[in-house]
Amino acid sequence: MDKVIITKPIVGICHMQVCTEEDITDQEILDVCNSQNPSGTTSGWQSVIRHGEGELIDCDKFLGRKHFLVGC
């Protein structure tokens, strides 16, 4: 299974959701997102939201994986 899977390519106007391994870095997530699903903005995907409004959520299908929001 890939370390990063895009599960919802569009969440609102400036976010998407990914399913990842727990120990992945923000840069690894952003690299996959910007190559597989470009945001269409000049700066591309810039942030991984791990806490707060887009708090990480355990994946209900795969043990040890988390869902994060990525913002542009």
Could you provide a short overview of the structure?
The chain has 72 residues and is an alpha+beta fold. It has one helix and five strands, in the order ββαβββ.
Number of domains: 1
Total beta strand runs: 5
Low-confidence stretches: none
Structural class: alpha+beta
Determine the number of helices (DSSP H or I, runs of at least 4 residues). 1
Biggest pleated-sheet summary: 5 strands, antiparallel
The SSE string, one letter per element, is EEHEEE
- What portion of residues is helical? 10-25%
As a whole number of angstroms, the C-alpha radius of gyration is 11 Å
Principal-axes geometry comes out as globular
Overall pLDDT level: 90
> What percentage of the residues does DSSP assign to strands (E)?
35-45%
Distance between the termini: 25 Å
How would you explain this protein's 3D organization?
The chain is built from 1 helix and 5 strands. The chain is of the alpha+beta class and 72 residues long. The chain has one domain. Strands 1, 2, 3, 4 and 5 form a 5-stranded antiparallel β-sheet that branches. A hairpin with a 3-residue loop joins β1 and β2. The radius of gyration is 11 Å and the shape is globular.
Q: Which terms would index this structure?
A:
72 residues, alpha+beta, globular
Topology:
Layout: E1 4-11, E2 15-21, H1 26-36, E3 47-49, E4 57-58, E5 65-71
Antiparallel strand pairs: 1-2, 2-5, 3-5, 4-5
